[in-house]
């Protein structure tokens, strides 16, 4: 019988599977922390978010879809990709900040 093990990064500290529901709850907690101003989002992330929304709906386009067809969506997708990377980085900063007090308490014990 072939054994299939999950990579360590897909497991919780106690060895249980890192599930989709946990990830969704984590994102909702992050968005609530931002909404309640418990986590301050970097200005570059806000600028990227606003730019992505405005650029998507603006009539001016660097690569027009009417001329180049599907290739015209490359610039839109690229801007949303940059925003997704920055937003994920913010979420990682939030998780690190949440775990920091527990790490310092563990070191003191």
Radius of gyration: 20 Å
- Helix count equals 4
Strand content: under 5%
Distance between the termini: 44 Å
What is the share of helical residues? 55-70%
Number of strands: 0
Write the H/E string, N to C.
Answer: HHHH
Summarize model confidence as the mean pLDDT. Answer: 78
Main sheet record: none
What spatial form do the alpha-carbon principal axes imply?
A: elongated
List low-pLDDT spans.
none
How would you classify the helix and strand content by structural class? mainly alpha
Give a short overview.
By secondary structure, the chain is an all-alpha fold. The chain is built from four helices and no strands. α2 runs antiparallel to α4 (74-108).
SSE blueprint:
Layout: H1 20-35, H2 43-57, H3 65-68, H4 74-108
Helix pairs in contact: 2-4
Q: Any overview of this molecule?
A:
- This protein is 64% helix and 0% strand.
- It is built from four helices and no strands.
- The chain has helices spanning 20-35, 43-57, 65-68, 74-108.
- α2 packs antiparallel against α4.
Task: Give a quick set of tags describing it.
single chain, 109 residues, mainly alpha, 4 helices
């Amino acid at each position: 019988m072939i054994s299939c093990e999950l990579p360590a990064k897909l497991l919780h500290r106690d060895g249980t599977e890192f599930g989709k529901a946990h990830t969704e709850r984590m994102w909702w907690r992050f968005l609530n922390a931002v909404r309640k101003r418990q986590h301050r989002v970097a200005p570059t992330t806000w600028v990227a978010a606003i730019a992505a929304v405005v650029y998507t709906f603006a009539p001016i386009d660097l690569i027009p879809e009417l001329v180049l067809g599907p290739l015209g969506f490359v610039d839109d997708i690229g801007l949303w990709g940059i925003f997704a990377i920055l937003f994920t980085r913010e979420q990682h900063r939030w998780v690190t900040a949440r775990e920091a007090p527990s790490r310092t308490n563990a070191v003191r014990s």
